[in-house]
Amino acid sequence: MSLLRSARFPAIILLVAAGLGLFVANSALWPAVDAAMHAELGIPGVFELTLSHWIKDGLLALFFFVVAVELQYELTSGQLNSARKALQPAIAAAGGVIVPIAIYAAMAGGSDATAGWPIPTATDIAFALGVLAVFGKGLPPALRVFLLALAILDDIVGIIFIAVLFTDGVNIAALAGAAVAVVAFGILSRQLDTRGRVPIAVLLVLLAVTTWVLVYLSGVHATIAGVVLGLAMAQQPALRVRHALEPWVNVVVLPVFAFSAALVVIPAVPLSQLSPAFWGVLVALPVGKIVGIAAFGWLSLRVAHRGSAPPLAFADLVAAGALGGIGFTVSLLLSELAFTDAAALRDQATLGVLAGSVISLLLAAGLVSWRAWHYRQRAATASTTT
């Protein structure tokens, strides 16, 4: 079970699942898989969704619940529990959002691909921490803390984009009902350690399912239900639930989503005819993240540590920027949402996410290895001179 919770293993599974999805979509298996993804599942005449929607609206809500619990912990007890701690990674994260958006918008140039500007803003925590675990032996704790805070803040931005940009025709009654269910969920979760756990746990599951259904019916993207439930739950029970869910999210939820999101038929057109939806994401993820995070991060550290050496060198920030360019999970979801009614653009944006994330991954592996080697050498030199 410890393997399933490790930082390395989930990243490998995600990469394999995405590669398998791309392979299946461009093989003889595609018609059967496509039909399966569009099959209606649920209670006939009451509540039915296609398999594709169950994956990206249902399964992925569990991932966002786990992310939200981590956000809650970091904002109250962890690395972001004060404005001083959060300021520097927040400024770097802002650069990692603003610069990719600017690059994408410039490349889209007012075309029909412009709607995809949020896609290259996300960072995949699982992948980033996986690369750090594999190649980052010897890195200073300050860099790990900085990267974790950066990835968490990027997730907050992605969640805000999903909630604000991709909500149409809100059903106020359903949304109000969801809010009541969330409040009840939060209050009840605080009774878990003082009263009978099993009955309360059953009620919490029922309230969570009710919240998800009502959020879906309200017109707000259903994954937001996972976010608000994770933030509303009492911290200690939430951390226990997160611990229980983490292996399933790592080996089932995220790989299944990566597989389904990567079911993209590669266009049989020359590179020159690919849409800005592809090129914008392809460039904005690796280049925009490195430039934005490194530049804004350098400025934030210089201002905060004026007159003394900052804890991170500029090269460390470049490595962090490369890690930030691994968009993957949330970027794939954003490409689905941005081009819901434009299948060709959605497929090209998805290819851009996959290619841009792989480029960022390779760059990050090299840069993190170099910085880790640098710090190991420095530690070895210091030990021989003392």
UniProtKB/TrEMBL annotation:
Q: Which UniProt keywords apply?
A: Antiport, Cell membrane, Ion transport, Membrane, Sodium, Sodium transport, Transmembrane, Transmembrane helix, Transport
How this chain sits in the membrane, per its record, is: Multi-pass membrane protein
Q: Which InterPro entries match?
A: Na/H_antiporter_dom_sf, NhaA
Name the reaction it catalyses.
Na(+)(in) + 2 H(+)(out) = Na(+)(out) + 2 H(+)(in)
Q: Which domain of life is it from?
A: Bacteria
Q: Name one Pfam family in it.
A: Na_H_antiport_1
Q: Where are the transmembrane segments?
A: 51-69, 90-109, 115-135, 142-166, 172-188, 200-217, 223-241, 248-271, 277-301, 313-334, 349-370
Q: Which compartments is it annotated to reside in?
A: Cell inner membrane; Cell membrane
**Entry's PANTHER family?**
NA(+)_H(+) ANTIPORTER NHAA, SODIUM ION/PROTON ANTIPORTER NHAA-RELATED
Family matches, as NCBIfam families: NhaA (TIGR00773)
The protein's role, per its UniProt record: Na(+)/H(+) antiporter that extrudes sodium in exchange for external protons.
Q: Which family does it belong to?
A: Belongs to the NhaA Na(+)/H(+) (TC 2.A.33) antiporter family.
Q: What is this protein called?
A: Na(+)/H(+) antiporter NhaA
Question: What is the organism field in this record?
Answer: Microbacterium psychrotolerans
Q: Which gene encodes it?
A: nhaA
